[in-house]
Write a structure and sequence with these properties.
The protein has two domains: 57 residues; 111 residues, PH-domain like (Roll), CATH 2.30.29. 41% of the residues lie in helices and 24% in strands. The strands form two sheets. Strands 1-2-3-4 form a four-stranded antiparallel β-sheet, covered by helices on one side. Strands 5-6-8-7 form a four-stranded antiparallel β-sheet, with helices on one face. A hairpin with a 2-residue loop joins strand 2 and strand 3.
Length: 180
């Protein structure tokens, strides 16, 4: 079982569920109409396809809502920068978390790209094999031993959350040293 350190932004995912929800309602209504009114089978097939597509989209969003952004399990920091699985980073190379700011990768507002507060994970310089990973750019960036988690996909990032992350990291490092 993993310990969640940083949660996903449920508000953003809830907003993303509006369109698939509307498609689902419309498709189910159309499917019921096509079946009860004895319409041509093509109508039923089209509405059934729309229903299945909307259910798949909603399922993906619900799955994403259950995934944290950062977690700890079995001596690894789990970094969720991919839609399907986390990257396991050994805790001993995680040095600290700090607050950053950068582009949100959201649509432009009044011609300017919105900025967001980010969580940055610093990895040890000696961990050369962990310097870079290809990740989904909307979720974050991983380069030169720094992992950036875009704040637009995380719970609201506050100084208290940053202090909690670093305090827990120090506790985990202390526990690992005491155990060895």
């Amino acid at each position: 079982m993993s310990e969640v350190l940083l949660r996903t932004n449920h508000r953003a995912l809830a907003m993303g569920m509006i369109l698939p929800g509307l498609i689902l309602v419309g498709s189910v209504t159309g499917l019921i109409w096509a079946l009860t009114a004895g319409r041509h089978w093509a109508f039923s097939l089209a509405f059934a396809s729309g229903t299945m597509l909307a259910l798949w989209m909603l399922g993906e969003l619900v799955y994403a809502a259950w995934q944290p952004r950062l977690a700890v399990a079995a001596g690894d920091l789990l970094v969720f920068l991919e839609p399907t699985r986390p990257t396991k980073v050994p805790l001993e190379i995680v040095e600290c978390f700090f607050l950053g700011q950068g582009p949100s990768e959201l649509p432009r507002l009044k011609g300017r790209e919105p900025q967001t507060q980010n969580v940055i994970v610093r990895l040890a310089e000696s961990a050369v094999e962990w310097k870079h990973r290809d990740v989904k750019p909307a979720f974050g960036h991983w380069c030169e031993g720094y992992i950036t988690l875009r704040g637009s996909w995380c719970e609201p990032i506050t100084p208290a959350i940053m202090a909690r992350l670093n305090r827990r990291l120090a506790e985990l490092h202390h526990e690992r040293k005491a155990a060895s």
